[in-house]
UniProtKB/TrEMBL annotation:
SUPFAM superfamilies noted in UniProt: Rhodanese/Cell cycle control phosphatase (SSF52821)
PANTHER family in alphabetical order: SULFURTRANSFERASE, THIOSULFATE SULFERTANSFERASE
Pfam families, sorted: Rhodanese
Gene3D superfamilies, A to Z: Rhodanese-like domain (3.40.250.10)
GO molecular function: thiosulfate-cyanide sulfurtransferase activity
Tree of life domain: Eukaryota
Spans through the membrane: 235-257
Protein name: Rhodanese-like protein
GO cellular component entries: mitochondrion
Span of domain Rhodanese: 14-133, 166-278
Keywords of the record: Membrane, Repeat, Transferase, Transmembrane, Transmembrane helix
Amino acid sequence: MSTIFIKPQELEHYKSTTILIDVTWHMPNANRDANEEFNQKRIPGARRLDINAISPKTSGAYQGKLPDASTFAKACSELGIKSLEDIIILYDTQGLFSVPRAAFTFLVYGFKNIKILEGGLPRYERVGLELETSTPSAHQPSDFNRVHLDVSQVKKYEDIIGAIKDPSNQVIVDARPSQLFKDGHMPGAKSLPFNQLIESDSDSFKDHDQLRKIFEQSLGGPEQFEKVVKGDVRVINSCMAGITASIVWLALFVLGVRSSVYDASWLGYSSHPNADIVKE
């Protein structure tokens, strides 16, 4: 099982050797400004990465695309990151929403020591730890300038077509709400709304046994999920635009399963004129 999460009380142990980054992103209809919220309140010493600002997009909305290597390397340099070995702790202000996407981005670009603050800022505040409300401190950029994408974890439209044509050793998991799935989905895709994985009264995943049962139910039973665990069947996670697919990716990650994300997700797939769409 993965130990990617750290508890808020453990932050003090890491502070002198890590870079702490707020990676909050809000849905467009939330009418919230994550950058302004960071300026008003943050964990002491935190830096800010706007994952929407570095994502290629054709409009003002988040398009779910990973930044290209040069853009991400530049963002890392501006954050003061010096190497792929740096210990980096990520958090968001929702608890567990945009932080999985940020963790996915860092990991597929080769970073070795990525951690996630369990429960994010809400949990940090609930346990009574210190907040910083003054103007964010400036930090020294680094000369970091190179990352390399692990393409095996990032799927494209052609990969989805391959999975649809030959589902014998791969399965598409759709993290969108059930109604959106019924309104239209990829052939053979399995529905697993991301919020089923998260405790309703907290800011974290359900326990490992519960997560496993949810995946078993969604993927067709214990035997099918065991094939996923063993690597005989590979999971491709999709959603609307890449954010919540990364939540499912992270849930599998903590169970010890390495999966991938369809970067463009439903927005990308459904925009293709010849895309096969199933409606229920």
